[in-house]
Amino acid sequence: MSSSAITMARIYAMEGHDQVNQILDILHDEEKIFGVTIVRGIAGFGKDRKIHTSSLLALSLELPLIIEFYDEPVKVEKAIQTLKSRLDLKHIVSWPATAHTDPAT
C-alpha cells in the first residue's frame, strides 16, 4: 500500500440553487479533479439560522448539500479559486489528508 498527500475540500450548499451542475462541470471537465462526491443532508442550518429539513411535516425544497472533493494540494487550491471566482459559494473548507492506495488498482 502506498500513501500520498492530498487536500480534501468541502462545499456546503443548498439544493435548488442551480449550482451543483456548474460545480460538477468545473471539477470534472475543467479542473480534472480526482474524486468528487455529493451528499444530500436530511437537515441543517447556516448563517441565517433557518432550519432546512426533509421532514414530511416541513417539506423543504432547499435541503443541505455537501460537495466533497480531493486531489493533489495544488489542484484543489486551483479548483477552489476557480469555483470562487465563478460562483457565489459562501462556505468552502479544506484540510490536508493522506490517501492510502493499493498500487495494483
Shape category: globular
β content, as a range?
35-45%
Q: Number of DSSP strands?
A: 6
Whole-angstrom Rg: 15 Å
- Biggest beta sheet summary: 4 strands, antiparallel
Estimate percent helicity.
10-25%
Number of domains: 1
Low-confidence region ranges: none
- H and E string: EHEEEEHE
Task: Output the CATH topology.
Answer: Alpha-Beta Plaits
Named CATH architecture? 2-Layer Sandwich
Contiguous helical run count: 2
Distance between the termini: 10 Å
Average of pLDDT: 87
Structural class computed from helices and strand pairing: alpha+beta
Read across the widest sheet, the strand sequence of neighbours is: 2-5-1-6
Top-tier CATH class: Alpha Beta
Organism: Candidatus Methylobacter favarea
Protein name: DUF190 domain-containing protein
Family: Belongs to the UPF0166 family.
Offer a quick outline of the entry.
With 105 residues, the protein is an alpha+beta fold. The chain has helices at 20-30, 73-86, and strands at 2-14, 35-40, 43-44, 52-53, 64-71, 91-101.
Report on the structure:
- The protein is an alpha+beta fold.
- The chain has a single domain (2-101), classed as Alpha-Beta Plaits.
- Helices cover 24% and strands 40% of the residues.
- It has 2 helices and 6 strands; from the N terminus they run βαββββαβ.
- The chain has helices at residues 20-30, 73-86, and strands at residues 2-14, 35-40, 43-44, 52-53, 64-71, 91-101.
- Strands 2-5-1-6 form a 4-stranded antiparallel beta sheet, with helices on one face. Strands 3-4 form a two-stranded antiparallel ribbon.
- Strand 3 and strand 4 form a beta hairpin.
- The N and C termini lie close together (10 Å).
- This is DUF190 domain-containing protein.
- It holds the Pfam family DUF190.
- Belongs to the UPF0166 family.
